[in-house]
Amino acid sequence: MTHQHTPGPWRNVENRAVQIGTSYFIHPCQHHSGPVEIKPADANLIAAAPDLLVALEDVLNMVEEPEGPYYHKARRALAKALGY
To answer: pTM of the prediction?
Structure first.
C-alpha cells in the first residue's frame, strides 16, 4: 500500500520526532495557552509511527480468518492512521 505520510526512519532527537537524513521534524506544538513541549514518550511514539503502520498492515495481511474484536480494532486503527 502507498502511504501519504513522510517516510521514516524517524528518531526521537531531543524530544523531537526527526526524520533521519532530512530537515523534517515535529517540533513542540502550539496550544491556545502557549507552546506545548512534546514529552519523550510522545516523541518516541511519533517516531515509531511509520514502523508501527507497516507492522500492523503486515500482521493484518497474515491473518487467515479475519474475525473477532481484536482484528476489527486493528482495522479501525489502521483506517484512522490512513485518514479513512
So the answer is: 0.67
